[in-house]
Design a protein that fits this description.
697 residues, alpha/beta, three-stranded parallel beta sheet
Length: 697
């Protein structure tokens, strides 16, 4: 044994680091593996050529590498979307190479000490689990591996700071909590050291981190952990250098990468972030990238955020992540230190500046009810937020909400469902699948209320989000007609809608019920039963229902436009039908919206460009103050327009289709990637040629 150990440490220690994603139907997680990049860069700084590092993102690549040459250490990230995938890799590796040390780290582990201990005891495939920030802890583990010749028993004989590890079915060993690093620049950049180079493959979105920590303590969120409430920053110089490095790599990429993501939980909330935004603006002016930026903007300091976002020319949305507008709910989830009223009051400011706004609401939070949830939706709608993301409350490991006390206090009823796109099959036939636990009832909200709220969420996704029907919604606001009332009526009267729409809606309701299981074990057994895996591949189960049914709706948006305007016409009533100009305004808005949403993803989308004659300048009206009537924007004579796609957008859409495909799942992902407001057709004025006229409305 001694000779073998000496042989192992005489060569570089082989380390595989993975932030894994499924690739079965499309990329389940589409960002660069920045987390393991930090681990790799710091380990390389500490050990240099004593270690041989390889980084992995895709299932097939890591599987091939393990079969070909198993590593000394296999370290994988743990999030809700790849935990079971990691366990399957550990199981496979153990069978091939029993001596490999299997390491896991990430936030997806219980917050309470006893629950965390039980987690480690019940997962014997995990040799070591890292607490919190993992760079220094992993370096200590590598040093231990070198000292012991990668001997399991010797490595586990004493604690390693920053880790918890299992000794037996009844015993674990815990190292000390490591002090968080305040000078983050001591961790080398994963970009500037070249560790991210292989991931500029056109499939993944570059991700950056400019700081670590979150001052807020939301009970449903991993970032609410008090251990990471102190915010530490990377230097401005380093952030700028990384942005320049990424921009240069994007220019060299053969496949268009249009987006950038920030991992910061409160981007643009800090004064120094404006300097970062200014640097991004310079890159945008120089090379037209990034076209879209995804980040969770700060929950306070909204004026500062608005100033920063103004620089980005609409490429980034203002995230007003309220989760609920009800003060009792906010207090229960420890979010009452965030001023939702101030957040909403600034929405009109962002709109005047032309900045897109986005808000999030979570269903089934403690203290919430159906009525409170609808009121929250209505408040956000009336504030004029452009996009409302609606989520079902997840019971995440590492959060206060997912504790025995919270479950009992709020009588949380839950079900289990497949995480969309998070499944795959290994070459030996084993199936891996990720399952989440979601709240579907509480002491104040019934399961039936949950279903009703989800119906309303679909209407928000299709009719409200992204701007396809924005001119109509603007008209309704001016006429003091409730937009939430319209959406509720669209749900209530769905049987009067065109058959194609009813099919989409009924599919959504049926699958909303069918996706929920009483136990994780039953669901896992069902998926692994004969032929059921094929249902995953076909998109019959395990899909993001909102995204998929939004994608399905895009195929029949002509029918949606008909139903939406028919219902709105009824709600406007006599004010519309007894006034000639009001009727003309409504007809023009109908024609405009119908042209905008027509045939977005069809194979002939670039040739099928509808034309329409308009009496009013709706595009200019949409940029005017909210109270301005459309009648002030009447043309002297009708103007003919065509609704099509610019050459730039054609290229971007083609690149996205190449990346994600044209299944409902793929289109759903493209909508998120491009941004809902950017998928619609654009208006082009044409010479007046009556023979080209094709009225839509």
């Amino acid at each position: 044994m001694a000779n073998e150990n000496q042989l192992r440490i005489a060569r570089p220690l082989s380390i595989y680091l993975g932030d894994m994603t499924y690739t079965t139907v499309s990329l389940a997680n589409f960002v660069f593996p920045l987390n393991i990049g930090f681990i790799a860069a710091y380990a390389e700084k500490c050990f240099g050529k004593e270690i041989d590092l390889r980084l992995f993102k895709y299932l097939e690549d890591l599987e091939e590498a393990i079969y070909t040459k198993p590593p000394d250490i296999l370290a994988l990230s743990n999030y809700p979307w790849n935990f079971n995938l990691g366990l399957e890799f550990f199981s496979m590796t153990r069978a091939i190479s029993p001596r490999t040390i299997c390491v896991m780290g990430g936030p997806n582990i219980p917050l309470e000490d006893e629950a965390r201990t039980q987690f480690v005891k019940h997962n014997p495939l995990i040799d070591f689990y890292a607490y919190l920030e993992g760079e220094e802890a992993f370096a200590a583990l590598v040093a231990r591996a070198m000292e012991t010749g990668v001997d399991h028993e010797k490595m586990k004989s004493t604690p390693i700071d920053g880790f918890i590890h299992r000794i037996s079915d009844t015993e674990v060993m815990k190292g000390a909590w490591l002090t968080r690093r305040r000078n983050l620049d001591e961790i080398p950049s994963p970009y500037l050291t070249g560790h991210m180079d292989k991931f500029f493959d056109g499939k993944l979105t570059p991700m950056m981190e400019t700081n670590r920590g979150c001052p807020f303590s939301c009970t449903f969120c991993h970032e609410g952990n008090q251990l990471i409430s102190k915010v530490n920053h990377f230097s401005i110089e380093r952030v700028k250098a990384e942005l320049d490095y990424i921009a240069a790599a994007i220019q060299r990429s053969p496949i268009l990468i249009s987006s950038l993501m920030f991992a910061d939980p409160n981007f643009a909330m800090y004064e120094r972030d404006y300097e970062i935004v200014e640097h991004i603006e310079k890159i945008q002016q120089r090379q037209g990238w990034p076209r879209s930026i995804t980040a969770s903007t700060g929950k306070n300091k909204k004026e500062r955020i608005a100033k920063a976002l103004r620089k980005l020319n609409g490429s980034m949305s203002m995230w007003m992540s309220v989760q609920s507008m009800d003060p009792d709910v906010l207090r229960e989830i420890q979010r009452d230190n965030i001023s939702t009223s101030q957040m909403m009051s600034l929405a009109s400011v962002y709109q005047e500046l032309g900045l897109p706004t986005l808000s999030e609401l979570i269903l089934c939070l403690p203290g919430d009810s159906y009525e409170k949830h609808v009121k929250s939706l209505s408040d956000v709608v009336e504030a004029g937020i452009d996009i409302i993301e609606t989520y079902t409350c997840m019971l995440l490991n590492g959060t206060e909400l997912n504790s025995a006390l919270s479950r009992a206090t709020y009588k949380l009823g839950s079900h289990f469902r497949i995480l969309p796109r998070d499944f795959g099959k290994f070459r030996d036939g084993r199936i891996s699948i990720e399952i989440e636990e979601v709240v579907t009832s509480t002491s104040t909200m019934s399961f039936e209320d949950y279903i009703e709220a989800r119906k309303l969420h679909l209407m928000i996704a299709v009719v409200y989000n992204g701007g396809g029907f924005s001119p109509l919604l603007r008209l309704l606001r001016q006429q003091k007609v409730s937009i939430i009332g319209l959406l509720q009526r669209l749900v209530a009267e769905i049987r009067s809608a065109p058959a194609s729409m009813q099919a989409v809606f009924n599919s959504f309701v049926r699958l909303t019920k069918e996706e929920l299981w009483n136990s994780e074990e039953e669901l896992r057994a069902y998926v692994r039963a004969e032929n059921n895996y094929e249902k995953l591949l076909k998109g019959e189960i395990g899909i993001n229902l909102i995204q998929n049914h939004m994608a399905m709706s895009l195929a029949v948006m002509d029918d949606w436009a008909q139903y939406v305007f028919q219902t709105a016409s009824t709600m406007l009533g006599d004010n519309l039908h007894n006034d000639i100009e009001s009727s003309a305004v409504f007809a023009d808005i109908h024609a405009f919206c119908a042209g905008s949403v027509h045939n977005i993803w069809g194979g002939d989308r670039n040739e099928d460009n509808p034309c329409v004659s308009l009496n009013y300048d709706i595009a200019s009206w949409m940029r005017s103050p909210l109270s301005t009537p459309l009648s002030q924007y009447k043309f002297r004579s009708p103007v003919m327009y065509q609704f099509g796609f610019s050459e730039t957008k054609k290229k971007e859409m083609a690149a996205q289709i190449q990346r994600y495909g044209t299944t409902a799942t793929g289109i759903g992902r493209i909508i998120i990637e491009m941004g809902r407001s950017r998928i619609w057709r654009e208006l082009v004025e044409l010479p007046a040629q009556p023979e080209q006229l094709a009225k839509i409305a």
